[in-house]
Amino acid sequence: MKVKIDEDLCIGCGVCEGICPDVFEMEGDVATVTVDTVPEDQQDDVLDAESECPTNAISHE
């Protein structure tokens, strides 16, 4: 699974980093993805972070 953040939609709330700090990290006012491919054991947390994002800035493929 690959995950990305739309920086235009991200408001920097930190919810994603709180749910899955091994994949998401805050850089200033926006979140970034710290891995190229999400490890299998982190995929459920990434999907949780995606669903909890208040601006729908997170997507996966």
Description:
The protein is of the alpha+beta class and 61 residues long. It has one domain (3-60): Alpha-Beta Plaits, CATH 3.30.70. The protein has 2 helices and 4 strands, in the order βαββαβ. It has helices at 15-19, 43-52; strands spanning 3-5, 24-27, 30-33, 58-60. Strands 1-4 form a two-stranded antiparallel sheet. The protein has a two-stranded antiparallel ribbon with strand order 2-3. A hairpin with a 2-residue loop joins strand 2 and strand 3 (30-33). The radius of gyration is 10 Å and the shape is globular. It starts with a strand and ends with a strand. The mean pLDDT is 97.
Descriptive keywords:
single chain, 61 residues, alpha+beta, Alpha-Beta Plaits, two-stranded antiparallel ribbon, two-stranded antiparallel sheet, 2 helices, 4 strands
Which runs of at least 5 residues are low in confidence (pLDDT < 50)? Answer: none
CATH topology call: Alpha-Beta Plaits
- Tell me the β content: 15-25%
How many individual helices?
2
- Quote the distance from N terminus to C terminus: 6 Å
Order of helices and strands: EHEEHE
What would you say the CATH architecture is?
2-Layer Sandwich
Please write the CATH class name. Answer: Alpha Beta
- Structural class comes to alpha+beta
Task: Summarize the amount of helix as a percent range.
Answer: 10-25%
| E-strand count | 4
Mean pLDDT: 97
Number of domain modules: 1
Rounded to an integer in angstroms, the radius of gyration calculated over CA atoms is: 10 Å
Side-by-side strand order of the widest sheet: 1-4
The largest sheet is: 2 strands, antiparallel
Q: What is the molecular shape?
A: globular
